[in-house]
């Protein structure tokens, strides 16, 4: 909020008000496009000789994320956070393509998004296979257009007791979470970089948002394999971000804590079973450790993904944003 006062002493009479208001409106709102749509609010304030009128610039405007028409790929877009992300980007006018492994779930998600008024494309692919990932990206760019934004939300590692972990389970966790992200990025990033050569310096030539998970920073005994995959994704995200920034490609990540999705509900059931308590009791205990006192919503994660992909985050590179309701008190 910015306040402008014409004078500390001279009262503005009703007779002079219309002309003064017009001058103030022009002064507060130059033709700069950043000020478009802004309307000043005028209030009365005490002055030395009575009452002065002050123009309060509240910057009351709709935030334009500039995502309209952007070709956006959402992996894992058939359910949970990925589905919420697809819905959010489509609502902002992006051309959304969702990728998931299960054709039936993919079709259900597409129908759900269409019922909300969004026309999205759906592609079935097992992203743990690098060739399948590359083929899916090739199809999307051929059928829709060059990819502007990639949001990775595919895959989730199964949870195991430490005593049950073996080489196959460790590898399965990487195949479920780490490699799907990497394989899609390996297919998308070279395309984004190639397009950078034909665009002006300083332009944004591509955006990647990796939705990872706080298990990579806060180990739990039943999520060690999956947490290791998350930690690897955090490292690769920051490293790739540092390299590709020179080409105008911004890469960032989100680390959600407990978010109400089908997967988290299943984990809650497992937790309750192991502790010999009810599901509601397990939920209450878990939420008691979160400063906000509740689990998050998939739509809240989608909102942060929107920001990171938008022009409002044009100088954000290599950030890993925690979303756990304040549970991770770290600097």
TrEMBL record:
What family is this? Answer: Belongs to the short-chain dehydrogenases/reductases (SDR) family.
Q: Which organism is it from?
A: Bordetella petrii (strain ATCC BAA-461 / DSM 12804 / CCUG 43448 / CIP 107267 / Se-1111R)
Query: Is tRNA-binding found in the keyword set?
Result: no
Q: Which residues form the signal peptide?
A: none
Q: What is the lineage of its organism?
A: Bacteria, Pseudomonadati, Pseudomonadota, Betaproteobacteria, Burkholderiales
Q: What is its EC number?
A: 1.-.-.-
Q: Does the keyword Oxidoreductase apply?
A: yes
Top EC class, one word: oxidoreductase
Record protein name field: Short chain dehydrogenase
Q: Which UniProt keywords apply?
A: NAD, Oxidoreductase
List the Gene3D superfamilies hit by this protein, alphabetically: NAD(P)-binding Rossmann-like Domain
Q: Name one Pfam family in it.
A: adh_short_C2
Gene Ontology molecular functions: oxidoreductase activity
């Amino acid at each position: 909020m910015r306040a402008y006062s014409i004078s500390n002493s001279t009262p503005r009479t009703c007779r002079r008000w219309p002309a003064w208001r017009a001058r103030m409106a022009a002064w507060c709102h130059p033709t700069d496009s950043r000020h478009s749509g802004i309307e000043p609010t005028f209030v009365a304030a005490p002055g030395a000789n009575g009452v002065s009128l002050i123009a309060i610039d509240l910057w009351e405007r709709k935030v334009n994320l500039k995502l309209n028409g952007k070709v956006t790929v959402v992996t894992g877009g058939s359910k949970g956070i990925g589905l919420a992300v697809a819905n959010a980007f489509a609502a902002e006018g992006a051309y959304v393509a969702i990728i998931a492994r299960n054709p039936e779930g993919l079709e259900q998600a597409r129908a759900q998004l269409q019922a909300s008024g969004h026309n999205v494309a759906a592609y079935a692919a097992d992203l743990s296979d690098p060739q399948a990932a590359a083929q899916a990206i090739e199809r999307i760019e051929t059928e829709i257009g060059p990819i502007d934004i990639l949001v990775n939300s595919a895959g989730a590692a199964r949870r195991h007791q430490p005593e049950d972990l073996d080489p196959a389970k460790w590898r399965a966790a990487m195949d479920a979470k780490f490699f799907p992200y990497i394989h899609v990025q390996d297919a998308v990033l070279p395309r984004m970089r190639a397009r950078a050569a034909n665009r002006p310096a300083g332009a944004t030539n591509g955006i990647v948002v990796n939705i990872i998970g706080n298990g990579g920073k806060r180990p739990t005994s039943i999520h060690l394999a999956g947490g290791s995959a998350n930690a690897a994704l955090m490292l690769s995200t920051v490293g790739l971000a540092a390299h590709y920034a020179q080409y105008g490609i911004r890469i960032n990540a989100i680390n959600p804590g407990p978010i109400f999705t089908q997967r988290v509900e299943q984990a809650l059931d497992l937790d309750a079973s192991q502790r010999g308590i009810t599901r509601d009791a397990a939920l209450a205990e878990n939420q008691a450790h979160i400063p906000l006192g509740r689990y998050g919503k998939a739509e809240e994660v989608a909102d942060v993904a929107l920001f990171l992909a938008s022009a409002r985050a044009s100088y954000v590179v290599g950030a890993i944003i925690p979303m756990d309701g304040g549970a991770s008190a770290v600097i």
